[in-house]
């Protein structure tokens, strides 16, 4: 390989590395400032455990009009909700513009797959049938309050790895844990997500707040 080609390749690698680092750096800063998780994509096995044969969706979700991902990252959940879960539409809320652009590019020809450059704390949950979140422990108390205030009765919430503390501590809440399951994910497809729990909840009644 000539010197020029080598220089070209290393410039490309540098540019790609810088872009990836910028996405992750942005993600960490926004996560820290705006109360959310940094960008770590869910393992494909977890997405399959929701939308695959015999998954959470088949046994627990009764209506399939609208699925929501709170912090949608690269958009895998939104795409799977429409393409495998046959939801009429799915919306991802994401603060990182690079991830929103990346996700939109993959859904450019798809109907019903939407990505909003918007904080998950401003997400409209009023007609959500299924909500997915891969958050961090520090947001789970406030998130539980938002979900119980805004979700319609019967909506299903799936949380990757982290439990809602009120449910864990046995306190009365409108979110009832229904079918949590261990998913053997391994470290697949360069995902940093690993084997772990998917916690599944149903919103039983409006919060009295
Ligand atoms: C752990 S990743 C999960 C990504 C995706 N849901 C998945 O499971 O593959 C969390 C995502 O939430 C985004 N995020 C963090 N805080 C947020 C906020 N306040 N509003 C919207 N998105 C946020 C991050 O940029 C990141 O992409």
Automatic annotation (TrEMBL):
Coiled coil: none annotated. The keyword Transferase applies. It comes from the Eukaryota. Gene3D superfamilies: Vaccinia Virus protein VP39. GO terms for biological process: methylation; regulation of mitochondrial ATP synthesis coupled proton transport. One of its GO terms (cellular component) is mitochondrion. Keywords: Membrane, Methyltransferase, S-adenosyl-L-methionine, Transferase, Transmembrane, Transmembrane helix. The chain crosses the membrane at residues 12-32. The keyword Endoplasmic reticulum does not apply. GO terms for molecular function: protein-lysine N-methyltransferase activity. Belongs to the ANT/ATPSC lysine N-methyltransferase family. This is DOT1 domain-containing protein. It comes from Emiliania huxleyi (strain CCMP1516).
């Amino acid at each position: 390989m000539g010197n020029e080609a080598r220089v070209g390749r290393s410039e490309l690698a540098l540019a790609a590395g810088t872009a990836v680092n910028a996405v992750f750096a942005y993600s960490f800063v926004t996560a820290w400032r705006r109360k959310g998780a940094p960008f770590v994509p869910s393992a494909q096995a977890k997405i399959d455990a929701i939308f695959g044969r015999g998954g959470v969706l088949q046994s627990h979700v009764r209506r399939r009009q609208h699925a929501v991902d709170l912090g949608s990252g690269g958009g895998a959940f939104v795409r799977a909700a429409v393409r495998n879960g046959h939801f009429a539409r799915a919306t991802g809320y994401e603060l990182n513009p690079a991830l929103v652009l990346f996700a939109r590019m993959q859904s450019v020809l798809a109907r019903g797959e939407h990505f909003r450059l918007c904080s998950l704390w401003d997400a409209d949950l009023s007609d959500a049938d299924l909500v997915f979140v891969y958050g961090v422990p520090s947001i789970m108390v406030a998130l539980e309050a938002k979900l119980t205030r805004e979700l319609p009765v019967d909506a299903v919430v799936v949380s990757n790895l982290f439990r809602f503390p009120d449910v864990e501590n046995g306190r009365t809440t409108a979110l009832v844990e229904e079918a949590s399951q261990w998913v053997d994910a391994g470290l697949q497809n360069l995902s940093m997500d690993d084997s772990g729990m998917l916690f599944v909840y149903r919103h039983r009644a409006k919060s009295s707040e």
